[in-house]
Design brief:
Blueprint (H helix, E strand, L loop, with lengths): L1 E5 L2 H11 L5 E5 L9 H14 L3 E4 L7 H10 L2 E4 L4 H11 L1 H9 L4 E4 L1 H4 L6 H4 L20 E4 L8 H11 L4 E4 L4 E6 L2 E6 L1
Parallel strand pairs: 1-5, 2-3, 2-4, 4-5, 6-7
Antiparallel strand pairs: 1-8, 8-9
Helix pairs in contact: 3-5
């Protein structure tokens, strides 16, 4: 299993292409951005990043594409790319559509690239981010994430509004999870369970 987890989409995509140059068709899951005021612009930015890298995006937006078609796209892709946005909303929609299972099955055989929220949901739990995230968790929500890795990514580390919060998360949850703060220029590469942080 290969996971490429980053704070920024272009970093995840550049690493994906660099590690797996044969990848061409990517299941594109932009659902996390849909509830954001600037969501359309964010999705367009990710689409541009994919196009610049020479990748063909299979639209797997869980709010617009029928779950069956999204599952087919996920299953047919050379890689997965899950974007940033609201991780709680993204995880909820993955569960509601049943695509959480399809993503997990696909990630066992093709690379999974995630940016920000897409990186967060790859981990075992959303609980470490529940107190500090700018996005509200949904009442009674199961905080279990996809569990593709034991690592819990803290995206956008180093930004002034994140440093203190990330320190608290590391102290509170560091005994239970492999907590990895990631700066915007960094990516966590996880191959067969072992992770390493790289720059750019």
């Amino acid at each position: 299993m290969l996971l490429i987890l980053a704070s920024q989409g272009f970093v995840a995509i550049e690493r994906l292409v660099g590690i797996e140059p044969s990848v061409r068709r990517v299941a594109f899951v932009p659902t996390a951005a849909n509830r954001l005021a600037e969501g359309r612009a964010i999705v367009a930015m990710f689409e541009d990043d994919l196009a610049r890298a020479g990748l063909d995006a299979i639209d797997c937006d869980l709010d617009r594409v029928d779950p069956g078609r999204a599952a087919e796209g996920i299953g047919a892709a050379d890689a997965l790319f899950v974007t940033g946005g609201d991780p709680f909303y993204l995880m909820r929609r993955l569960r509601e559509t049943g695509c959480d299972r399809h993503v997990a099955l696909a990630a066992a055989r093709v690379p999974y690239a995630g940016a920000s929220a897409g990186a967060v949901v790859a981990g075992p739990s959303l609980e470490p981010l529940a107190a500090s995230s700018p996005f509200p968790k949904h009442p009674g929500m199961d905080m279990t994430a996809l569990g593709l890795t034991r690592h819990v990514v803290l995206p956008h580390h180093g930004r002034p509004d994140r440093v203190a919060e990330h320190e608290i998360i590391q102290r509170t949850f560091g005994h239970a999870f492999a907590v990895v703060p990631l700066r915007d220029v960094e990516a966590l590469i996880v191959r067969d369970g072992e992770g390493r942080v790289v720059r750019g």
